[in-house]
Amino acid sequence: MFETLTERLNDVFSQLQRRGKLSERDVDKAMREVRLALLEADVNYKVVKDFVARVRERAVGHEVSRALNPAQQVIKIVHEELIKTLGEPAPLDLSGPKPRSIMLVGLQGSGKTTTAAKLARYLKRKGERVMLVGADPYRPAAVQQLQTLGEQLKVPVFYEEGTPPPKLARKAVERGRAGGFSVLIFDTAGRSQLDQELMDEIKAIAEGIHPNEVLLVVDAMIGQEAIAVAEGFRDAVPLTGLIFTKMDGDARGGAAISIRSVTGVPIKFLGTSEKLDGLEAYDPSRLASRILGMGDIIGLIERAEENLDEEEAARQAERLLKGEFTLEDFANSLRQIRKLGPFGQLLEMLPGQLGAAARQVSPQEAEKQLKVFEAILNSMTPEERRKPEILNASRRRRIARGSGTTVQDVNQLMKRYREMRRLMKTLKKSGLRGGLGGLLPF
Asked: Which range among 7-11, 225-229, 376-380 has the greatest average pLDDT?
């Protein structure tokens, strides 16, 4: 997400920081580069023009000329104006009597069904009693997909074969009220393109259930077309928000930057992976930081708190400090990393110099390396993991054969393991005990 734009903007900022004092000409040159970077990232032309004009007006004024570090001040201005362009965060409206209804609408293939399940998981973890409603009788296997996802989440799915969606929706509300559910999520039908039949059906469902939220699910991969889709739905039904899906597959991400300014409809969630936990509440400040290469340490902490075993991390940290860190602990660390999500997303969330260094790493290669290490560790006996010193040449050859890797791969893992032990010994000598458990998985 935003890799290309982040790289281009970081190049611009690096050039500014080498200048020291900034002239108006320096600012104009930087703004031309920023403009090109945003346009290449598929940001709407009018949005780019307005954004650059606002940044330039502030950057050539007293705000920068009197700053101790002019380049940093320009970056701060870009960050603030980017937040303004991305729009204010808009939380879900779950007010009023139960059950509250959330309608998901969108074109076919945008990811509505998976997003319905992700949203169910998100709300369930916040204490809501959720029921999914299969209001898409047209797409083959749509209801079966929703039911499969519902079983994984232990969330019930309401559906009646042969019942028209508007009538089914009203019945779902009655069932939800009788069953004591607090939130109903409606997975409605999509089409390959906007058409009147689709809009009439969505209107009929909305008029029958009076939803708290009508959320448009948009595929980020379609770029500027997302704006036309949002405008088409907004003119037909009272959209209250947007969910961008497949953000992990779009290196440009310009539509997400443009859409609030152009349509006036707020973004509420971002779909960041295909997994059911791959849904993030939209936060323009954090997103702006990630776009500008500042990382998202808050998001990383939240992900760690949700997925990592705190007691296990503390136990491993204690063992490290005592010099007892074995390959068994190393294997547990790798498993902890895998719980946090796709490796590429973790890298882009790292802040400052860590983030800059991480962007030099290929996420695909890093993911591949993790899998190789896991295969090697799984091919060892418990004794070998607990006592790495017994891994002689003959054992390493056997482990390589068993894991489908090479002896060189086994040696590489051992090298990384020794480096990690060495690093932790250095930290211990430096007295950096606090927070070690949080560093461990990385």
From this structure: 376-380
CA distance 297 to 289: 10
Do 303 and 289 lie in a common domain?
Answer: no
Q: Lowest-pLDDT range, 156-170, 307-321, 328-342? A: 307-321
Q: Do the strands 267-271 and 279-281 form a parallel or antiparallel pair, or are they unpaired?
A: antiparallel
Give domain status of residue 12, yes or no.
yes
SS3 content of the chain, % helix, strand, coil (to 5): 60, 10, 30
Residues 6+ apart with CB under 8 A from 295: 289, 348, 349, 350, 351, 352, 354, 355
Q: Of 264, 301, 273, 265, which Cα lies nearest the Cα of 286?
A: 301
Judgement on whether residues 224 and 146 belong to the same structural domain of the protein = yes
95 inside domain: no
Element (H, E) at 254: helix 254-263
Please count the structural domains in the chain.
Answer: 3
Do both 351 and 222 map to the same domain?
A: no
| Residue carrying structure tokens 């009147």 | 196
Tokens representing 179 are: 């069953």
Domain hosting 393: range is: 299-439
pLDDT digit string, tens, across residues 93-132: 898 889 999 999 988 888 889 999 999 999 998 899 999 9
**DSSP H or E segment with residue 337:** helix 327-339
Task: Report the half-sphere exposure of 152 (CA within 13 A, side-chain side).
Answer: 14
Least confident of 60-69, 128-137, 277-286: 60-69
The answer to whether position 109 is within a domain reads: yes
Distance between CA 165 and CA 181 in Å, rounded?
Answer: 20
**Paired tokens of 316:** 């491993």
Q: Are residues 271 and 347 in the same domain?
A: no
Alpha-carbon torsion (214, 218, 223, 226), positive or negative: negative
- Domain end, chosen from 59, 86, 113, is at 86
Instruction: Specify the pLDDT at position 440.
Output: 37
d(CA 264, CA 439): 41
Q: Do 317 and 385 share a domain, yes or no?
A: yes
Q: Are residues 166 and 180 in the same domain?
A: yes
Classify each residue of 125-139 as buried b or exposed e, where b means 16 or more C-beta atoms within 10 Å of its C-beta: eeebbbbbbbbbbeb
